[in-house]
Amino acid sequence: MLVYVMNRLFQSVAILMIMTLIVFFGLNVIGNPIDIMVPPDCGFDCRAAAEAAFGLDRPIHEQYFIFLSRMLGGDFGNSFVFGLPALDLILSRMVATLELAFSAMLLAVVIGLPLGLWAGLYPESVSGRSITALSILGFSLPSFWVGIMLIMIFAVELGWLPVTGRGETRTIFGVELSILTLDGWSHIFLPALNLALLKISLTIRLVQSGVRETIGMDYIKFARAKGLSRNRIIFVHVLKNVMIPVVTVLGMELGTMIAFAVVTETIFSWPGMGKLLIDAINLLDRPVIVAYLVIVSMMFILINLTVDIICGFLNPRIRLDGSRS
To answer: Is the same domain home to 221 and 170?
Structure first.
């Protein structure tokens, strides 16, 4: 286990370094942030002073090594636009994004798991076929269109739910959370549902296919022959084995939710990291963009490692060092 974790950490550091290299030089090719930050009537001396103030007058490779040395110390530099540390800006928005992502994942599991189980147990029934058809539809609909439709139906036409902001929050251990209040849940439900739609469909298909594959295996037949109840067979023997690929895939998808919640946060004006990233890209705010990508990459790495460990507990035959019991 220790050797596995150390190898993963070493690989993670290498990936982070490569990612920062690509992003840093890629942003330099796209454009010069000074063109956006200074007024049009700014002369040569004005532009030169602005570039010197932000360190953009140095060669790009020198800028990168300065940034890298600071990053290793936890300093991603100050935002070109806000003048605040980029890391502080990201962390101030991270709670909202994590809250949205985990709420969406909760909806995906709560809705997708029972529907997928039902569709797997009764694939030829009308309800089973309907669930399968709806899951295919969920894969096909673009999230931005679904978000607009949710706003039109539940906010504009019916007036049931709000669509902007986080609503009332409660502070616990110094962290403000919307999910601790009823008003906060009313604000988070629509963006979480929009973000979870694809994951609900994915969960349905994973569970359905897993149940259909597992239900005909020999150990299930032996369990029936021993006289075990149907519920025990389904919820102990079938579902436990089905959950291994489900946990693996959904764990990977959780990182995707966090990284690509940009569309949902923009549509619903959710004050998370995604909306901050869009603003930073529009203004070529290089420190904020790089800080965001580094933090999200670290989240991906941590989530993947956690998923591997959970799968090892779900199936004792799996060993993270590659051996078998």
So the answer is: yes
CB 219 within 8 A of CB 66: no
CATH number at residue 266: 1.10.3720.10
Tally helices (H) and strands (E) across the chain.
14, 2
Residue 323 within any structural domain of the chain = no
Q: Among residues 255, 259, 257, 207, which one has the least CA distance to residue 234?
A: 207
Model-level pTM? 0.74
Number of residues that this document lists for the chain: 325
Place of tokens 């890391």: 87
Tell me how far apart the alpha carbons of residues 227 and 224 are, in angstroms, rounded to a whole number.
5
64 burial class (0-12, 13-18, 19+ CB within 10 angstroms)? middle
Question: Is 301 among the domain residues?
Answer: yes
Q: Which domain holds residue 222?
A: 86-314
Per-position pLDDT tens, the chain of length 325: 667 667 777 777 787 788 778 877 777 766 667 766 666 667 677 777 777 777 777 777 887 888 888 887 777 778 877 778 888 888 888 888 888 888 998 999 999 889 998 888 888 889 888 998 888 888 888 888 888 898 889 888 888 888 877 878 888 877 778 888 888 888 888 899 998 888 899 899 888 888 888 887 777 777 778 777 777 888 777 887 788 778 778 877 887 788 778 888 888 888 888 878 888 887 778 788 888 888 888 787 777 777 776 766 666 555 555 444 4
Q: How far apart are CA 180 and CA 107, in angstroms?
A: 16
Q: How many domains does the chain have?
A: 2
CB 303 within 8 A of CB 251: yes
In a domain, 324, yes or no: no
User: Do 103 and 54 have their domain in common?
Assistant: no
Q: Are residues 18 and 293 in contact, defined by beta-carbon separation less than 8 angstroms?
A: no
